[in-house]
Amino acid sequence: MSDQFSVVVTTINHPTKAMIDLQEGCDRLNSSFYVIGDTKSPADFSLPGSHYFDMKSQLGSGFRFAEACPTRHYARKNVGYLAATRAGARIIVETDDDNIPNAEFWQPRTLSVQAPVVRERGWNNVYRYFTDAPIWPRGLPLNEVRAAQASRPSVYEETACPIQQGLADKNPDVDAIYRLVLPLPLSFDKKDPIVLGEGVWCPFNSQNTTFWRETFPLLYLPYYCSFRMTDIWRSFVAQRIMWTNGWYLMFHSATVYQERNEHDLMIDFRDEIPGYLNNDRIKKTLEDLDLRTGVDNIMDNMKVCYDALIKMEVIGSEERSLLDIFLYDMEKAGWK
Question: What's the pLDDT at 152?
Fold first, then answer.
């Protein structure tokens, strides 16, 4: 790691164990830690060494997005992505204030990955490659949960994976239905990474995820949708656009464990209903889009994808102007 490696979280809490450990790790590696607050964040928040952006700092950052994005929402995290980009980060690792890093979290990451590649198109429950337990990631359509799993490929290939999802032990990222009816905690097996080829879909989250600079615009978290779907629907857009550049998505064993913040599971369930009803339809819509190849077309492709989601009425029409402002700020921040 180096000062070109940045960690980004958002919080409305005082420094948690996760944030303290993340700051200490960044200090050891001469890396940057960005903490993005909101209107509910403590007025006396203090974590020496971090780049903490309270609302005043965000509004004074020069980012138009900071002024345009409504408050009290996870999408404020977008300000952290922009700040890290402007500071010259080559890699952004995002996580949450309740995900505690273990030693493996700080190991060097490589964009080029030697790993088995899944080629069977359609939905894939990646969690089942890392455990025999009946479990699925938040965002996987419910009608796919019990679908037969493909065997783990035996041939290792070298592929470019500029987005890499790490798992989380103890409280993995599962949906409210799982939490209401099945037992936790659960820890995944330590296994080699697995890569999803073109046309192979699995939701990824914002809890332990690495992005290389080429993909920084794809970090964008939409605001005008369900809170429980913002990172999931982002992941679908990101996967679809990655394939236009010959990039694949990689999943690797857990490098954090979650001590979950308090949640009302019935509220989570309510907020996940748009995903239960629409995720398969979103996949099919994105697959049918005519997107252009090349890194230079990532931002235009994002506009096409989000326009399609707005037309589907799963995301509000106000999203497009907010996306445009974010992409403007990303360009001004020196992306590429």
Answer: 81
Task: Summarize pLDDT for 33-79 with one digit per residue, the tens.
Answer: 999 999 999 999 999 999 999 999 999 999 999 999 999 999 999 99
Rounded Cα distance, 232 and 115, in Å: 24
Closest CA to 176 of 299, 100, 90, 267: 267
Q: Is the dihedral of CA 127, 128, 129, 131 positive or negative?
A: positive
Number of continuous H segments (helices) and E segments (strands) in the chain = 9, 13
Q: What share of the chain is helix, strand, coil (3-state, %, to 5)?
A: 40, 20, 40
User: What was the pLDDT predicted at 154?
Assistant: 85
DSSP secondary structure, 30-93, as one string:
T-EEEEE--TTS-TT---TTSEEE-HHHHHTSS-HHHHHS-SSSGGGHHHHHHHHHHTT-SEEE
Contact residues for 184 (Cβ-Cβ < 8 A; gap 6+): 170, 171, 172, 174
List pLDDT tens digits, range 140-194: 999 998 875 667 888 899 999 999 999 999 999 999 999 999 999 999 999 999 9
- Quickly count: other Cβ atoms within 10 Å of residue 104's Cβ: 13
- Picking from 144, 106, 113, the residue whose alpha carbon sits closest to that of residue 128 is 144
Whole-number Cα distances in Å, 208 to 82, 120, 161, 255 = 18, 25, 15, 8
3-state secondary structure of 264: coil
